[in-house]
Each structure stands twice: as structure tokens, then as C-alpha cells.
Amino acid sequence: MPLEYYALAMIVAFFVLVMTGIPVGFVVAFVGFVFGFIGFDGWLFELLPSRIYGVVSNYTLLAIPLFVFMGVMLERSKIAERMLDVIGHLCGGLPGGMALAVIIVGVLLGAATGIVGAAIVTLTLMALPTLVRRGYKKTVACGTICAAGTLGQIIPPSLVLLVLADIMNLSVGSLFAAALVPGLLLAGMYLAYLLVLAFFFSADVPAIDEQERAAVSKRELGKDFAKVVVPPLLLIFAVLGSIIGGVAAPTEAASVGAVGALLLTIVSGRMSLPVLSETVKTSLRISCMIFFVLIASQVFALAFRGLDGEFLIEAMFEWVPGGMYGTLIFMLLLIFFLGFFLEWIQISYIAVPLFLPFLASQGDMSMVWVAILIAMNLQTSFLTPPFGWSLLFMKGVAPPGITTGDIYKGAIPFVLIQILALALIIVFPDVVLWLPAVVGW
Question: Does residue 290 contact residue 159 with C-beta atoms inside 8 Å?
């Protein structure tokens, strides 16, 4: 039997086993080993130790646990909760002001955590009961929180961008610079949608009650802004600015971010042994999951390439009409649907490498642009009913009065906005490539 048939069987076996509920890391390694031994009696895996060593000795990947620690510390210490309260009061005089505050805090959380699950759970617990209590329509409240929490997929220092930089052999700084404008553009489109909603349907997004606003003086609000919002902002700018500006490597900047988050928690008076313990345990758990999938994917990739899987993918692309753009849209659609069933880390390490050789052979296609399209596409799949992970995260911690239908209906307008944003950066690549060119990446 031709080797390409074994490669096709590998993909089928992978999806069948994933659907049974077996953890993906184990499935990836198992399928890789089984088909590697069937096709080559195992001698192919003599190359495996050097590939695994290349992963664990990659200095840039050390930024992953450091950024995870930074984000989890800011979330566990309740600093994000205070930020939402302060920004909400600043926007509170406007209809939809609290929803605008949720998006703004989502941008800051995205820049601080890069972890979608943590951001969604944090914003749901902090904001959903408050929005509903203040008279917001449930669907609007749910959709706003899901969309804001998912911004961490695209706004640097996103873990998605770090992983894609490693997989696609790109500079982390160039991806961070490339993602900044699309991420802020998407957040701006969310804000514009909410402002339109406030103008035409103000009853769905009422302003904060005047008495509640009057209870906090402008002077107190200014002091709270300086104490609660400015320090995390400065930390985020220091971390991102040092990477994008080429002053520090991603790992060095991530270590500054981790120490900065620790100091912010101490200064705010929120540091305690349970907070530190929970932060370390959660950071370790998330980091181990990422690195286990990363190492397991080396087994799968080695067997798949040995079985001429690359030629299978190349032949598949030849059937797709529309040339370079047809191929790109086909890949984005496939990743979008995979997002219904798989976590972003699994898609990144399993699906993206399958397409990479063909995409790299298209000389006039910027791989930085492709990486941002993939990141934005993964973000869209997180919000899409019925299996979007952000929706499931929210349902897991939402108050009893919130139904699955409320969450699904609320997410749909934001999914359409994300698709529009994705279309804009496909049609206008300079939205992605402008800032990297300006800063010299």
C-alpha cells in the first residue's frame, strides 16, 4: 500500500480517537508511534530524541510559563476585578458604558494573560451578574463578555502568537508587532457595535444609575484609576514595548512581566500564601499541558512526514480552485471547523504544520500575515456556536438564570464582526504588515 494512504489513515485515526474523549496529547503520540512502526518498523524514531531536545532547549519557549504566570497572578489577585469597576464608573454615564468597560478590560486582560479560558472565566464571574443586575439584556451581556475574553487570542503577548512563532519559525517580535493593529482594530469594531446598540436600543444597555455614580467622586475615581489601572497598563507597555522595539528578547520581557505582576499584587495588598500557591499550581498545569502536546506532536509530525503526508496535503491543495487565495481560504475554513472540536494548541501543533510546507512554497505570501490570519481565525472559532470553547467556558461559571440560548444568541453578532475583521486583513494585508515594517522587523 502506498505510504500516502497510511498518512491519510493517520489523520482519520486521530479524529476518531479524539472524538472518544481521550486526551489529545496521548492520542497524538499514540497515533504517531503506531503508524511510525507500521510504516518503518520504528527505525524512523531514531530521529525523535534530537527533535524533542530541540523543543525543550528552545530558549524562546521559556516565555510561555512566564507569561502564563503573569496572567494567572493578575487574575488570581483580583486586580482585573478592580480594573473593571474603575473603568466601568468612568464609562458609566453612557448607555452601554459597562459593556464598553468590559471590552476595554478584555483588551487589558488579553495583553496581560493571553489565556482565553482564564479571561472568560474571570470576566464572567466579575461582570455578568453586575450587567444583568443593572438591566442589560442577557444576550448582549453574554456576547460582550465572550468576545472581550477571547481577545487574548490575538492581542500580544498571546500564547497563540508565541506558539505560532515557534511552529512557523518566525520572530516573536514580528508577530507581536503584526498582531497589535488587527487586535486593536477588532476591539474597536466591538466598541463601535456597542455604541450603535446604545444609540438605537439604549434600554438593552442602560447607563449606570446616577445615584451610584454620584457616590464616587471624580477625585476618588481619578485616584483609583491611577492606583488600579495605570500600573498594569505600564507593565503591559513595558513588556510589549521591549519585545516589539527589540530591546529585550521575549523570554527576558516575560520574566519582567512575571516579576512585575508579583510586585503589583504585593503593592495592592492582595498577596497571600493561597494566592501564590494557586497561581503556581495553575501556571504549572497550563504550561505542562502546552509542552506535553508540543512534544507529543513531534512524534506525529515525524511519522506523518515519513509517510509522505506532505505530498498528500500538496495534492489536496491542487484540487482547490482559486490559486493562492483559494488555498488560503480553504485552510482558514478547515482551521475554523477544527476549532469546534479541538483546543487552539492542538490545532496549532497538528494542523498548521501540515499546511506549512505548501504555504511556504508560495513565494509571494508573507508568512507573518498568514500567522495573524490563523490566530484571528482560531479566535473566531472560539466564539462560534454550538461548540465554541469560549461559550462552554462561560456556561460553566454563569449564574443559574443564564441559558445556553442566551450565550449562543449573544455571541452571533460578535462572530460576524470577527469574520468581517478577518476579511479586512485578507483584503488589506498592510493592516498586519505596516507596524512590523515601521519598527524594522
Answer: yes
Task: For residue 107, give the amino acid letter.
Answer: V
How far is residue 105's CA from residue 149's CA, in Å, rounded to a whole number? 9
Q: 368-383: string of b/e by CB count within 10 Å (b at 16+)?
A: bbbbbbbbbbbbbbbb
Least confident of 31-35, 224-228, 246-250, 255-259: 246-250
Q: Which residues have C-beta within 8 Å of that of residue 42, sequence separation ≥ 6?
A: 36
Q: Which is nearest to 374 in space by CA: 326, 322, 426?
A: 426
Residue 48 C-beta-side C-alpha neighbours within 13 Å: 21
Phi/psi for 137 (5° steps) reads -60, 135
Minimum mean pLDDT range among 90-99, 210-219, 272-281, 408-417: 210-219
Q: What is the pLDDT of residues 373-394, one digit of tens each?
A: 998 888 887 787 766 767 777 7
pLDDT tens string 127-143: 787 788 778 888 988 99
Distance of CA 13 to the CA centre of its chain: 27
- The set of cell numbers assigned to 244 is 516589539
Distance CA 402, CA 141 (A): 10
Strands of 231-313 (E only): list them: none
Phi, psi of 304 (to 5 degrees): -65, -45
Q: What pLDDT, on the 0 to 100 scale, is given for residue 386?
A: 65
Contact in structure between 291 and 159 (CB atoms under 8 Å): no
* Inter-residue contact 208 to 88 (CB < 8 Å): yes
pTM of the model: 0.76
Chain centroid offset of residue 22 CA? 23
| Sequential DSSP letters for 67-124 | HHHHHHHHHHTTHHHHHHHHHHHHHTTSTTHHHHHHHHHHHHHHHHT--HHHHHHHHH
What is the rounded distance in angstroms from the CA atom of residue 384 to the CA atom of residue 272? 38
The residue ranges of every structural domain in the chain are 3-439
What percentage of the chain carries pLDDT values higher than 70? 85
Neighbours of 272 (CB within 10 A): 12
Confidence of residue 55 (pLDDT cuts 50, 70, 90): confident
Give the model's confidence band at 182: pLDDT under 50 very low, under 70 low, under 90 confident, else very high. Answer: very high
pLDDT tens figures, 287-299: 787 788 778 877 8
User: 386 preceded by cis ω (within 30°)?
Assistant: yes
Measured in Å, how far apart are the chain's first and last C-alpha atoms? 47
Q: What is the Rg, in whole angstroms, of the alpha carbon atoms belonging to the chain?
A: 22
Q: Residue 16, Cβ neighbours under 10 Å: how many?
A: 11
CA 305, CA 29: separation in Å to the nearest integer? Answer: 14
